[in-house]
Structures are given as C-alpha cells and as structure tokens.
Predict the structure of Efflux transporter periplasmic adaptor subunit.
Amino acid sequence: MPTALPTGRRALLLLPALLLACSEPPAPPPADPRPVRVVTVEPRAGGEVVSLTGTIQAETEASLGFRIDGRMTERLVNVGDRVQAGQVIARLDPTNEENNLRAARAALAAAEAQLAEAQNNYWRQAELLRGGWTTRQRYDQASQQRQTARSALDSAQAQANIAENRLGYTELVADASGTVTARGAEPGEVVAPGRMIVRIARQGGLDAVFDVPPVVKDQAPANAAIEVALTLDPAVRTQGRVREVSPSADPATGTFRVRIGLEDPPPALRLGSTVTGRMQLDGGAAITIPAGALTRKDDAPAVWLVDPATQTVALRNIEVLRHDPARVVVGSGLTEGEVVVTAGVQALRPGQKVRLLGAAP
C-alpha cells in the first residue's frame, strides 16, 4: 500500500505548477514592416498633353417639318439616306388645300368681274359729268365703288396666293444637301406644324465634339491647334480649332460641351465616328503620381502617405484633375516632398509600419 506524502512536501511539489499557470503568456513578436514601393511627390512643369474622347457630328443640323398641319401620306427618305437640295422629303394629303385653292381662285375671278363693272360705271359717269348730264354725287359714288372693287380684287389675289402657297407646303423639300440622321413621324400620322419629320446633317463641315472637364477648359490656350484622330485607326487624323464652347456645364457630369471645327477632314471621319483629341495645355506646375497609388476613402480618391520619421502610413484624400491607365494628375491634397505608396496599397491599414523597398531594413 503506497505511503502518503507529508502535506508540506506536497505543497512544495505543486508550487512550480501554480507559478507556471499564473504567469501571463508571452507577447507575440512584433510583425515585420510591410514592404512597399513609394514615390516622392515632385511638381512637374506645365505644357502637358491631354487626350479626350469624342464623336464626329455635323457642323450644322436642321430639323425639317411641315409649315401646316395634315395627314402625312408618304415619307420618301430614311435614316442614313443622302438628300440633295430641292429633293422632296415627305408629303401631306393635299385634298383640303386643293379645294381651298379652287375657292380662292373663284373668289379672285368674281373680284375681277366686279372691278371691270365698277371701272365701266366710273368712266360712264365721268363722261356724263363732263356733258352736264349727271350729278357730282353719282360720279363720286362710281369712283368709290371702283376703289372698293379694286381693294376687293387685291384681297382676293392675296387669298389665292396664300392658298397656292399652302398647297405647296404639302410637300416637304430639303433646303440643302446632307444626310438624314433621324426621323420623327411615320406615314399615316396627323402632324402639327413644325413637328420634326426628319433631321438632316448638312454638308459643308464636320465638328469633333468633346465633353471637357472645367480644369482642362480653363488651362486650354487661346485658339489652340487640336489634333483629332480616328480612335480605331489613329493614322486617320486632321487638325481643328475650337469653334464653339458651351457657356454652362452639364448638370450631371460637370463637363462643358466643346465643338472643334475640322480642317479638311478625311473621308474616313464619318458622322458618329469615335475620335481622340490631343491638345497641349498652358504652362503651370502639376503633380503626377502613378495610377497604382490611387485608392478610396469616404467614397473619394485617396492615397497612402509614409511618415519618414516613424515609417508608418496614413490615408489622405486628394482631388483628381484627370487620369489615364498609367498616371493620375492631382489638383490638391499633396505637397512637394511627400512620400506616396505606389504598390501594395490594398493591404495597408492606418498607422501600419512599412519598409521602403530599396531602403535599409
């Protein structure tokens, strides 16, 4: 049978175990600084080339519509058709206008007959007055009737001219050569005066149309030469000048619509083609960082900055003027000499220690 240990000896044996259980677990070793690539902010000289994407549109577009109302019986052109000046575009039912013209011509014939009768009566009264066979009163009445008949004839002639013009208005005629870009009514519809039947892009000039950010608009030099190239084939290119700038910004995008008048555009630049415009901006300092440095904070563009003293990172919002797949032009938020993380931005957290690649550990 085993012999029981004395109480004091048993306590001495349990003491190391109790001390081990009461001690705190050792602290984990500090995490190694995360390696990152950085770039030092340096303002870049002005004169930067900016590229924007736009479309080719006609210099002048006209919406053609009938001057009178009526039921459209035929539309002779469709979208994409080329039309010539004087070509008939569409027709209205002419029945009512033909009847109005016949009525006006009949009224004109009656007015001519009344004037002829009034003229004869006037000359007769004039001869009788010279021979003393009539009174001055009858002569004056004949003169007044002749004048009234002459005025009635003028009115009837004007009504006949109006009726004839309205009959001509039943045919919609192109006033200039061009290409049909849109249609607004179909045969069989009753159309109101002025309603767009077709829209025609007139020949004689092409514009490259761009939506330009405010900062680019403000930095653009006066009467700048702009190179416009076909996006699908950059070898197709031409030069242009600013022809029109919208005075107000688009409420949705905040950009300004700018139309560039093209000089001798090649045939490959067709209506609706997507083009790229390049322009040299005026001088002025600008900060440029790699596109990989850009991240977001509070739904706004931001970058990670490195504190050289503590080797820790912090997130800061910036204003982006423009960007492309390779770089970002910063409007505000960065100053010269600050260090920006360009690689590894998605794995950082505020206050985290980092190690700059290429620097001593």
